[in-house]
Structure to design on (426 residues):
């Protein structure tokens, strides 16, 4: 079971945040096929939000084909977003970690690291297009 | 869709002063309604009219299709928690539940006892010895146990600390999730209601300024900033909510369902707090303006 949280400053509607957190958990393998999501009541009370907001998020996940409701029992995960690339996460993470350490040593602060990373992401996306 | 609360030209007058005037509303079933406005705006008057504690001086109001407070069945269908969640200091919690059972034929004593237990309260405790949050929970428990179709809560969390406030709202959410009860709750703070409500009514200066589904309200209101504009220059589909001007710049809040085409404006989305504030300051400004210049 996962627990939701809300970020009031994200600028994202609460129902979208719930959708995104489920997708995120699916991508990271925290949720797998057959897992149960919190009931609407559980999720609504723990987040202190309107139950309709949770229902709306669950409906959207259902439309995306990621979960299905079994009436009277609950909402279950029916698909996954993680793929084989998950296995590659470990080594990639390690090398990224090493790179971050190097960057810090070179005197870069978090903001510069973030900017550099995003710049690389952008230029590699541009290469792909070209 | 049936309306939980339907008001037509509803008004309440005390002497020469109208506490609420020209109130026309149709609140759909199954909503959690936030009634927001500054102190003294007319929120309590509207709530008291909807439970039958007050009779209208003008217009009409119907609640769940009936006239508020007129019959025993009508009374049983509405749960009401008055401001400051009143309880009897000398009565124990058990006394309160017993009293609730006497007064309400459909009183769900089991639900009430289970809820008191889950809150960690002792039935023998005197209400006078409870904390503000516990007293509020007791009042909510009594109102819930009536199994009402509509729950009316007047400023339920105003005097509570943040934790008690959250626990109280969680109680309200549990009722909504369990039985689909409609709820209307008032507050002078938007932040209290923002996450819990899906329908909003803003009352300022004894008038309803805006009412609607929160999602729709957020999608249709925009803040525009740009070089100084005169109000006459606004397209007809844009309803002006609030404006402020410097000698060079204008900042206005408009309501429209159409896209804003004028390239001179920078368009921003509003959050709920900004939206309510725009109506409050807009209404206050309209009051100050000389009567001849009032723009309707």
């Amino acid at each position: 079971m996962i627990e939701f949280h809300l970020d009031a400053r994200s600028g994202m509607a609460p129902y979208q945040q719930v959708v995104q957190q489920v997708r995120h958990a699916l991508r990271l393998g925290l949720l797998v096929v057959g897992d149960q999501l919190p009931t609407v009541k559980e999720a609504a009370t723990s987040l202190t939000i309107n139950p309709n907001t949770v229902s709306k998020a669950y409906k959207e996940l259902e439309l995306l084909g990621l979960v299905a409701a079994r009436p009277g029992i609950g909402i279950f995960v029916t698909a996954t977003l993680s793929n084989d690339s998950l296995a590659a996460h470990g080594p990639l993470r390690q090398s990224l970690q090493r790179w971050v350490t190097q960057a810090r040593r070179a005197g870069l602060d978090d903001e510069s690291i973030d900017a550099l990373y995003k710049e690389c992401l952008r230029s590699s996306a541009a290469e792909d297009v070209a | 869709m049936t309306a939980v609360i339907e008001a037509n030209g509803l008004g309440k007058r005390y002497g020469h002063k109208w506490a609420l005037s020209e109130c026309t509303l149709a609140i759909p079933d199954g909503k959690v309604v936030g009634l927001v406005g500054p102190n003294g705006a007319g929120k309590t008057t509207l709530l008291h009219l909807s439970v039958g504690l007050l009779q209208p001086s003008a217009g009409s109001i119907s609640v769940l299709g009936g006239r508020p407070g007129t019959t025993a069945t009508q009374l049983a269908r509405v749960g009401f928690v008055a401001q400051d969640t009143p309880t009897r200091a000398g009565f124990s919690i058990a006394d309160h539940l017993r009293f609730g059972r006497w007064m309400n034929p459909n009183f769900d004593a089991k639900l009430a006892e289970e809820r008191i237990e889950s809150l960690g309260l002792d039935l023998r405790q005197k209400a006078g010895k409870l904390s503000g949050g516990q007293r509020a929970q007791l009042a909510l428990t009594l109102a819930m146990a009536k199994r009402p179709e509509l729950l009316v809560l007047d400023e339920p969390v105003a005097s509570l600390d943040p934790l008690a406030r959250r626990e109280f709202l969680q109680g309200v959410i549990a009722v909504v999730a369990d039985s689909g009860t409609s709820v209307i709750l008032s507050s002078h703070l938007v932040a209290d209601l923002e996450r819990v409500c899906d329908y909003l009514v803003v009352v300022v200066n004894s008038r309803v300024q805006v009412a609607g589904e929160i999602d729709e309200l957020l999608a249709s209101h925009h803040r525009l900033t740009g070089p100084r504009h005169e109000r006459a220059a606004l397209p007809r589909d844009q309803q002006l909510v609030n404006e402020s001007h410097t000698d060079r710049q204008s900042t206005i809040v408009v309501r429209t369902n159409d896209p804003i085409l004028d390239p001179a404006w920078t368009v921003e989305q509003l959050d709920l707090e900004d939206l309510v504030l725009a109506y409050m300051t807009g209404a206050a400004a309209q009051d100050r303006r000389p009567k001849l210049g009032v723009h309707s």
User: Anything to note?
Assistant: The interface with chain A takes residues 32, 166, 169-170, 173-174, 176-178, 195-198, 215 of chain B (CB under 8 Å).
